[in-house]
Design brief:
Length: about 90
């Protein structure tokens, strides 16, 4: 089974508010790091080139928090109980 097939079995219950907070003045290099390291591809640029986070598809792996550090990710917490990703195996 491919990674994409495995991930497609998961279920997401989106929260109303993001559980990831970025620093106010990120440099292009800092945001590029987030784009590169996130396995879910949450950190992207919209059509106008603005940095956006699609937190609703978060795998809750913590890669962004561990690699980018507190200077880029000012707050990271798990979504509220019953929200976020529900992993399904098999």
């Amino acid at each position: 089974m491919s990674v994409n097939d495995s991930l497609s079995r998961n279920r997401y219950v989106p929260a109303q508010k993001s559980h990831i907070t970025l620093a106010d003045n990120l440099s292009e290099e800092q945001f590029a790091l987030l784009e590169k390291i996130c396995p879910a591809g949450l950190f992207q640029r919209n059509a106008e080139g603005q940095a956006v986070i699609n937190y609703r598809g978060c795998l809750e792996c913590g890669c962004c928090r561990m690699i980018a550090g507190h200077s880029i990710i000012t707050q990271w917490r798990y979504p509220a109980s019953g929200k976020g990703i529900v992993l399904r195996f098999g």
